[in-house]
Amino acid sequence: MKILAELAERAIIEAQLRGEFDGLEGQGRPLPDQSDPFMPEALRMAYKVLKNSGYVPEAIQSQREIRALIECLENETDESRKMRQIQKVQLFLARAKIRHGGLLQEENEAYFQKVVARTTLNTTS
Questions:
Q1: How far apart are CA 113 and CA 98, in angstroms?
Q2: What one-character-per-residue DSSP string does 6-48 give?
Q3: Which portions of the chain are predicted below pLDDT 70?
Q4: Number of H helices, E strands in the chain
Q5: What's the pTM?
Q6: Helix, strand or coil for residue 105?
């Protein structure tokens, strides 16, 4: 692993010497502050480390799962699978409300209701 880091460092230094980083947008200015202004100062560094390591908070992961399920529902053509998908989304929404509550779930629920309103189920089989 150390060899890869050294190769990358050498490539960066060579690019700097060739001037490939000259004139880039924002050069000479500090990087924009990407921290959450509502995050307590004492927690900002910890959350930055978690974010940089790829950690995704459970509430955000739940939202992604719900969105994926709703998108699958929108594209589903089989009647029985549509019904199962609707039930699955309802279950995930209920579970997310219990665990997290908040606006993210309300947004998903509103989106889900719009999709269900557009979804037609053939009840005659």
A1: 19
A2: HHHHHHHHHHHHHTTTTT-TTTTSPPPP-S-TTS-HHHHHHHH
A3: 1, 101-108, 120-125
A4: 5, 0
A5: 0.50
A6: helix
Neighbours of 111 (CB within 10 A): 16
Closest-CA residue to 113 (of 96, 94, 90) = 90
d(CA 88, CA 79): 14
User: What does the pLDDT look like over 93-116, one tens digit per residue?
Assistant: 888 888 876 655 666 677 777 777
For residues 72 and 87, give the distance between their C-alpha atoms in angstroms, rounded to a whole number.
13
**Residue 110 to residues 64, 66, 69, 84, Cα–Cα distance (Å):** 15, 12, 14, 19
* Pair of tokens at residue 25: 């947008």
Q: How many CA atoms lie within 13 A of 100 on its CB side?
A: 18
The label of the residue with tokens 């509550």 reads 101
Amino acid at 74: E
- Return d(Cα 35, Cα 43) in angstroms, integer: 10
